[in-house]
Specification:
Elements: H1 23-31, E1 37-41, H2 44-58, H3 69-86, E2 91-92, E3 95-96, H4 113-120, E4 129-133, H5 134-139, H6 141-151, H7 161-165, H8 190-199, H9 201-211
Parallel strand pairs: 1-4
Antiparallel strand pairs: 2-3
Helix pairs in contact: 4-9
Amino acid sequence: FPAVGHGELTGESSVSSLVAFNASFAAKANCGDQIKLIMLLREPVDRAHSQFLMRMRLGKHGVTPDKSFHTYALKELQNFQHRVNENPDWRQATKMMSPLFGPSGNSWWEGMYGYFIEHWLDYFPRENMLIMLSEDVFRYTAEHVSLAYEFLGVDPNKVDVNKVTAKVLNSQDQNQRVDFEHTSKHDLDSETEDHLKTFLFLHNRKLESVLGRKLPNAWFPRGHHN
């Protein structure tokens, strides 16, 4: 964490901390069990599609402009199932016992948030976690930023929330390394979307159980209503 003076708060943000199996242990060992944790969860299929486009823009993980999202998604699905077959004891009942992949190892594994949150709960109390859904934050940004400040013990009335929410970090332009023409094959088609959300159905139910709340209908296949 960045060093700060007396009476100041410090922290860090990462897209991999939630998924990294040893991060919870390391955080508690180095910072104690009273730190505050904010988790932002994006609908897993939408998150994976965004990850696919980012990897293509950066030219990483073998994702090239000639590859369709459909092909990428099914390959990731096959890799996940292959790893499950190799590690049948990765969970007991519904609890994760060992990770199948590390951070950025598999797009679908990274979207199975319920297992990761449950693992963090082995190290930190639930009241020290603020868990928000991306669609809620995008729709009511200022309200959720204020909620985060209150959670951290900061008076949101002393912060220019509009100025904070106007900042753009890690934008598409900042992550453009490969020039390519975006075509329909890079998009998420409805048939692929339903197939992937059907695969994730029970894992999202697991997340609902951990959170103690229903997820939006958009997290499930078409025709399913929560």
